[in-house]
Design goal:
Structural class: mainly alpha
Number of helices: 5
Largest sheet: 3 strands, antiparallel
Strand content: 5-15%
Distance between the termini: 29 Å
Number of domains: 2
Order of helices and strands: HHEHHEEH
Helix content: 55-70%
Shape: elongated
Radius of gyration: 22 Å
């Protein structure tokens, strides 16, 4: 199916005006950039420890939902000596991110 679509597109591409082709190229580039941005959001964290606000942003939950899940034991939080507040280990976040990323 894809091969036939590519052949059809190749045949029609010769009929596309330069202005339309420029728009197609620009849109293709934008789609590629968006795909890369989405992929980068699903990468395994690069830091060892994250603050609750960072975790909420990465996995897309509210702070109140985070606090409820923390109280229920869903998140394992740690107090790092000499720091303020609590932190979540990066290894804890891997259960929220897609496999193979």
């Amino acid at each position: 199916m894809l091969t036939q679509t590519n052949k059809t597109m190749s045949a029609k591409k010769s009929q596309i005006t330069p202005g339309v082709q420029k728009q197609i190229d620009r849109l293709t580039q934008e789609v590629t950039q968006l795909k890369n941005q989405l992929a980068s959001k699903n990468e395994i964290p690069k830091k060892d420890w994250y603050r609750p606000a960072e975790v909420c942003q990465m996995i897309g939950i509210s702070r109140s939902k985070f606090e409820n899940q923390k109280r229920s034991g869903f998140f394992q939080v740690h107090k790092i000596p000499g720091s303020n507040g609590v932190y979540i280990a990066a290894s804890e976040l891997s259960k929220f991110l897609p496999k193979g990323k």
